[in-house]
């Protein structure tokens, strides 16, 4: 799709979107997977995870993902491959992080502990 957009005369916003949308999905999927792994460890009563509140695990997962994504976009590390700095990619990643944080906190997984906290 990118090749078609570059060969033809398409509006620049479409070109930017075609290059930056993978960053949005990378932030969404990476954060979702990390939070899911942390909550699974809690629900399976693994080690210290069973004593940590679900809210704290969600915050840690989102925070860690945010740090990883932003530092990668700013080229402070190259763990994700050959990354090229692009401000639009940073914006797309940030929007992805905000989007998935909203989804996790608004519609995400809850457990008995959280339901009891909400009722009191």
Average pLDDT, rounded to a whole number, is 84
Strand content: under 5%
Major β-sheet annotation: none
Kindly name the structural category.
Answer: mainly alpha
Please provide the count of β strands: 0
Global geometry: elongated
Give the radius of gyration: 18 Å
**Individual helix count:** 5
Order of helices and strands: HHHHH
**Helical content, roughly?**
over 70%
N→C terminal distance:
52 Å
Unreliable stretches covering 5 or more consecutive residues: none
Assembly type of the chains comes to single chain
Structure description:
With 120 residues, this protein is mostly helical. It is 72% helix and 0% strand. The protein has a domain at 48-111. It has five helices and no strands. The chain is elongated and about 55 Å long.
Summary of the model, kept short:
By secondary structure, this protein is an all-alpha fold.
Question: What's the structural blueprint in terms of helices and strands?
Answer:
Blueprint: H1 2-7, H2 12-43, H3 54-73, H4 87-107, H5 112-119
Q: What descriptive keywords fit this protein?
A:
5 helices; mainly alpha; elongated; 120 residues
């Amino acid at each position: 799709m990118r090749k078609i957009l570059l060969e033809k005369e398409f509006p620049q916003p479409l070109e930017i979107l075609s290059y930056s949308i993978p960053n949005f999905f990378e932030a969404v999927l990476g954060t979702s997977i990390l939070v899911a792994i942390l909550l699974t460890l809690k629900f399976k009563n693994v080690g210290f995870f069973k004593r940590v509140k679900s809210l704290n695990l969600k915050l840690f997962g989102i925070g860690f993902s945010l740090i990883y994504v932003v530092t990668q976009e700013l080229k402070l590390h190259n763990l994700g491959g050959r990354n090229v700095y692009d401000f639009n990619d940073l914006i797309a990643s940030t929007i992805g992080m905000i989007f998935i944080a909203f989804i996790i906190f608004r519609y995400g997984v809850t457990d008995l502990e959280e339901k009891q906290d909400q009722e009191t």
